[in-house]
């Protein structure tokens, strides 16, 4: 049931290490391509957003754009659904923040020296070292900006992870072995209570994604959380008809899960 999230500096080998761990444990490997394939199924509009907005520092107008908020919610919902299924390696996209405090999740960050990153990116992309350096700097800046906007953290603090690994000069196989050993310990922490809480959190984000992408009107404020007892939908609407539609759409996703609405009218 354990879940592994891997955050990585570009060129650190984090993706390769995650894939090795997934193969050894027979875990599902969820990366950018798999997540955005799910968004593509939701429609061309979301496929276009995924091409331009993935781990990208949003501009001021994008931060408040309804579609951007919908895109982020859909990515978060997809990650949580994968985590609920368990036995999965989730690459990037802020999974370490989204799954914080879930006892059976191991959150790993993989880094490496700049020199090794430049060398690896140069070889992988077939570019000269200076171009590789610029690519690394741009990617680092954009990823940090995305995380800061969505989670309020830039992803650089080792304290945001359970394990901080430096792959400089270290075989990827050895690092994968270390991760697999720790995952077996995490697996024993997957009790019914923690699994249920994760399932409810997944429902909360599924409802949020549904409302942000499916409503025919704009809500200036919207949030959906599991408060330990019920799924709580909070927001601001203008008309009784809007309130009724929010409640209807939320119930479609929640099923029999307990729901509470804290919807107020715009003053």
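-> sequence recovered:
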């Amino acid at each position: 049931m354990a879940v592994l999230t891997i955050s990585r500096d570009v060129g650190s080998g984090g993706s390769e290490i995650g894939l090795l761990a997934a193969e050894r444990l027979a875990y599902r490997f969820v990366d950018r391509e798999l997540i955005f394939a799910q968004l593509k199924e939701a429609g061309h509009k979301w496929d276009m957003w995924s091409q331009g907005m993935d781990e990208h520092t949003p501009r001021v107008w994008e931060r408040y754009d309804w579609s951007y908020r919908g895109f982020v919610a859909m990515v978060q919902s997809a990650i949580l659904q994968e985590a609920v299924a368990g036995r999965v390696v989730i690459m990037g996209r802020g999974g370490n923040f989204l799954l914080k405090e879930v006892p059976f999740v191991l959150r790993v960050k993989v880094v490496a020296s700049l020199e090794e990153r430049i060398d690896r990116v140069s070889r992988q992309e077939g570019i000269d070292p200076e171009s590789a350096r610029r690519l690394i700097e741009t990617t680092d800046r954009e990823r940090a900006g995305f995380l800061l906007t969505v989670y309020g953290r830039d992803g650089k603090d080792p304290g945001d992870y359970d394990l901080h690994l430096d792959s400089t000069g270290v075989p990827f196989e050895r690092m994968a072995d270390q991760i697999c050993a720790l995952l077996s310990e995490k697996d024993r922490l997957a009790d019914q209570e923690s699994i249920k809480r994760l399932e409810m959190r997944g429902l909360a984000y599924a409802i949020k994604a549904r409302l942000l992408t499916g409503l025919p009107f704009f809500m200036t404020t919207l949030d959906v959380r599991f408060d330990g007892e019920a799924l709580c939908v909070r927001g601001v609407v203008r008309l009784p008809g809007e309130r009724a539609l929010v409640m209807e759409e939320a119930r479609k996703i929640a099923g029999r899960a307990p729901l509470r609405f804290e919807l107020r009218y715009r003053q």
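The chain has two domains: 3-192, 215-265.
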